Amino acid sequence: MAGSRSLKQRLPLFLTVLTILACIISPVGMYPMSVKHENFKKCSQSGFCKRNRAYADEAVASGSNWKAPYELDSSSITLEDGYLRGIVIKSTESGEKVRLPLTVSFLESGATRVVLDEERRLKGDIELRHGSNIRKERYNEAEKWTLVGALTPNKVASFSPEPETGFTKVLYGPENQYQLVIRHAPLELLFQRDGETHVKLNDRGLLNLEHWRPKVDVPEGETAPEDESTWWEESFGGNTDSKPRGPESVALDITFPGYEHVYGIPEHADSLSLRETRGGSGNHEEPYRMYNSDVFEYELNSTMTLYGTIPYMQAHRKNSSVAVFWLNAAETWVDIVKSKSTTNPLSLGLTGKKTTQTHWFSESGQLDVFVFLGPNPQTLSKTYGELTGYTQLPQQFAIAYHQCRWNYVTDEDVKEVDVKFDRYQIPYDVIWLDIEYTDGKKYFTWDPMTFADPKGMQEQLDESERKLVVIIDPHLKNENGYPIIDELKSKDLAIKNKDGNIYDGWCWPGSSHWVDCFSPAAISWWKGLYSYDKFKGTFPNTFIWNDMNEPSVFNGPETTMPKDNIHYGNWEHRDVHNINGMTVVNATFQGLVERKKGQLQRPFILTRSFYAGTQRMGAMWTGDNQAEWSHLAISMPMVLNQGIAGFPFAGADVGGFFGNPDKDLLVRWYQTGIWYPFFRAHAHIDTRRREPYLTGEPYMQIISQAIRLRYQLLPAWYTAFHEASLTGIPIVRPQYYIHPEDEQGFAMDDQFYVGSTGLLAKPVVAKDQESVDIYLSDNEKYYDYFDYTIYQGGGKWHNVPAPLEKIPLLMQGGHVIPRKDRPRRSSGLMKWDPYTLVVVLDESGAADGTIYVDDGESYDFEKGAYIHRQFTFVDSTFISEDIGSKGPKTDGYLKSMSDVRVEKIVVVGAPAEWEQRTTVTVIEDGAKGATHASLQFTRGESGKAAYAVVKNPNVGIGRSWKIEF
Ligand code: NOJ
Q1: Rounded-to-integer distance, Cα 132 and Cα 127, Å
Q2: Which of ligand 1's atoms lies nearest the C-alpha of 473?
């Protein structure tokens, strides 16, 4: 007893020594690290956030006495050509009447856009402080970077002003099914579908547009009527923001009556279904923040901001989904509370038990919000995508496996890694170079000592159709004689500080300047830098990684740029911050499309920072995660959320960026990473090497099996990307998205479907876990992907075995899954390989699916050079039909693909009577007559489904055919 007591007493000291030792021996890898909270603002440290939260608190405290000071002047309302216009009057405490022009656009897509601006600022009738010459208007150019279409108004919107009742009603949308009810005073907007209110704006009266006012010096000894402490200047972490326009935030409450779940507003390391933010058990204390930042060692289950922003939120309840998009590029916060639903006459027929109330506030800019009435997640993805663009159809290689680390240190190193992948027969498509390849962190150069022969290196990669991605960051080393910086200065293309001089900050190269990709001249210069002539040592198989584009500034406030910095057009950085990263990607994208005149190629760009619209130009990843199980687990909700928010080409660093994963974690990470639309392993410079072939057996085999599964399913992945590029539908889809009627799945974010294939995955993301519980919503049979074990669906949970070597993956009955089964070194080498089609029959013996194929690199698909087929299995007949449309390049492409055939068809859940059959009849369009192929039936035993294999039916993947079983 005495001995054990003394051990316990000594334990704390022992642990402290151990911790210190661990830190000395290994700064990364042994213990979870955590963010430095003091470097990032909490709401209470951000003036406008604090003010708007206080405003909301006051409203709640005042209850029914709360007087929201905004009303729509009834006499000002007009409706013309699909635009409703009017003047909203804000009455201030001092009796001032501030005029705010309101425009509501009813769009053909059924979406509605509500814009509120400030008349005085629109007219330029304000004074700026500190002699600043920045713009006087509220920022109104976010749409220029973000929106690409669907702004055509629906001219038939019908209008019934009822001035005497104080309401205006507008019927709009498809067949006038939607109605907007505007209450004039206080202003409130109710969006109704089929007679029910689904979205309410300013229902809680939290609309707050901080109008311009001059700074009046309060005589000494007196106090200002309002708390002005955060109006005119703000300091944080030793930096002072000069705020030349004073307070100018915009805020609004948005309520989803009867909706318990909301999703979206990336980027946060949090659950898919967003949590409440006003405290209480299991809830957050802070609002979700969106202010693109380089957050070192970010924490999980947090509302802290990360690298990118998409201010788009989807709300879901049983059988109904709606959404809003808050088009604002300034720092933004969103509070979420959920309350018990109350029935009110305007929201008849509520089905959800709870109502979600959200409160949005941005530091500057006009109020610009889109409302989408669904009615389901698919229509929302489509309508939102029409506005901001769909995901780019990537090159084929871009959806295969990427091998990265900071850094592959020489060209010889790259070549050796390349050879080793082959030696160990592990496929990969792309190898990456982080910042060390450059000559002293000067982008667009190569270190002459370590990368003396980029050409030879890339020639070797090219032999197996592999690609190289090199990093190019937007901070440019301020060093005399570096031609890029000299041009940046002489052409006046850099971001300026508040005094109008080139802004100088600290990043990887030390003292740096930042290219201002808001400027058309900067865009055309930056574009030009990627031409093969300029960026020597790059070739058609070199692609680009834009990192640190939040922008990350090591010595800047909150590791970014001062808000009073100035961009092209005299806009403050404050106004455009969240778009900055996207402008860099935009300029890079334009550069990569045509690096040599006449040679068009689909670009591939990875970006860390993003905004709504970036999905049109590349992929994103979730930044600097850690080699911890918790980081593996959160990666899937984060990736799923990206898909909901219209940017599905997303992934996380496989293996974890900081730290050294143990082998189990690394294996499980690969088994999860194969489900990220963007699948890349990456690691910090201080970590140990962990290429899959270094892991030893059995880990190497298990990892390579996982990567091979990704390669086998590439035809299905490419088809899913194609679908996303046309409809905005996520590539990996959360449970609620597929089963919008089943409440059990609304908060699920650890199991998901891959494209429209019916493949349902639930990776293991916890240590020592040897099985997973999978929930099957619909009344279908599901089958284990590998051994066809049957799992009956219908609101049921199943425990699926998942020892380390097993990837939990089920196939939902009713689908056709296209695959390529021949193992190759890279996806490029699979181009002419034959296909396998897996037909997974449903309860009625039917299945369907699609495939999309093109050359995987050029834009010829826009001229019809592609194959798009519909597969249908019904009444024991399997057919392939063309669902593409013809273009000038269709015939040529089909001809080039005529030798690409189907080599195998597997029918899972095959009927017992097939046991007697040995052949199937094959009829291909254009063939001389029917042929036969062999059918091999295997009986279903011990819980496994029967299946049948047709060997070599030899039908063309691009042809119409029919196979009779
Ligand atoms: C930060 C990125 O997040 C990381 O992936 C990269 O390795 C480093 N920058 C160095 O470029």
Answers
A1: 9
A2: 11
Nearest-atom index, ligand 1, CA of 307: 3
Question: What is the per-residue pLDDT across 886-938, written as a single tens digit (0 to 9) for each?
Answer: 999 999 999 999 999 999 999 999 999 999 999 999 999 988 899 999 999 99
Distance 582 CA to ligand 1 centre (A): 17
Give the closest residue to 710 by CA, choosing from 731, 694, 689, 725.
731
118 in active site:
no
Mean pLDDT of the 369-383 span: 98
Query: Is residue 780 annotated as part of the catalytic site, yes or no?
Result: no
- Residue 684 Cα to ligand 1 middle (Å): 7
State yes or no: is 550 an active-site residue. yes
* Mean pLDDT value across residues 696-702: 98
Q: In 10 A of CB 266, how many CB atoms?
A: 30
Active site residue: 624, 723, 784, 855, which one?
Answer: 624
Domain 393-692 has CATH 3.20.20.80: yes
Tens-place pLDDT, residues 474-523: 999 999 999 999 999 999 999 999 999 999 999 999 999 999 999 999 99
**pTM for the predicted model, two decimal places:** 0.95
The strand ranges marked E within 53-166 are 70-72, 78-80, 83-91, 97-106, 112-116, 158-162
Q: Where along the chain do the CATH 2.60.40.1180 domains lie?
A: 725-964
Query: Does 5 score more than 90 pLDDT?
Result: no
Q: Which atom of ligand 1 is nearest to the CA of 406?
A: 7
User: Any idea which architecture 725-964 has in CATH?
Assistant: Sandwich (2.60)
Q: Please provide the average confidence, as pLDDT, over all residues in the chain.
A: 94
What lies within 8 Å, CB to CB, of 317 at 6+ separation is: 258, 259, 260, 261, 351, 352
How far apart are the CA of 551 and the centre of ligand 1, in A?
13
What stretch(es) of the chain map to CATH 2.60.40.1760? 45-294+311-340+357-368
Ligand 1 center–CA 460 separation, angstroms: 26
Fold of 45-294+311-340+357-368: Immunoglobulin-like (2.60.40)
